[in-house]
């Protein structure tokens, strides 16, 4: 599927959501021009089971959180974000304790120390 040309007066939008950790779903939607994010979400039958929880989910277009009234353009990507279950810093601490070794980031050297 993917990058097929939309019909005149229609736009093609990608919808991505994750109902549970490790489960990522994807759908292409063929929508009328001038459609909003909310209308796009309502148009996806696969996403329908998530609609009652929509008020507690954050929604974005191309990685930027947007209101449900945001207008869509051709080839936009709607992303539905689940709430975090664990603070990212705490998750990193838990991984550290499980591995039992120091976590070394590629972006920050080990305290500026060099081996001599």
Largest sheet: 5 strands, mixed
Number of helices: 2
H/E element order: EEHEEEH
Roughly how much helix do the residues carry, as a percent range? 10-25%
For the termini, the CA-CA separation is 56 Å
The coarse overall form would be elongated
- State the low-pLDDT regions, or none: none
What gyration radius follows from the Cα positions, in whole Å? 20 Å
Strand order of the largest sheet: 2-1-5-3-4
Number of strands: 5
Mean pLDDT: 82
Structural class label: alpha+beta
Strand content: 25-35%
List keywords for this structure.
5-stranded mixed β-sheet; elongated; alpha+beta; single chain; 116 residues
Architecture overview:
It is a single chain. A hairpin with a 2-residue loop joins strand 3 and strand 4. Strands 2-1-5-3-4 form a five-stranded mixed β-sheet. It starts with 9 loop residues before the first strand and ends in a 17-residue tail after the last helix. The longest helix is centred in the C-terminal third of the chain and has 12 residues. It is built from two helices and five strands.
Secondary structure elements and pairings:
Blueprint: E1 10-20, E2 23-32, H1 37-42, E3 58-61, E4 64-65, E5 77-81, H2 88-99
Compose a concise summary of this entry.
This protein is of the alpha+beta class and 116 residues long. The protein contains two helices and five strands.
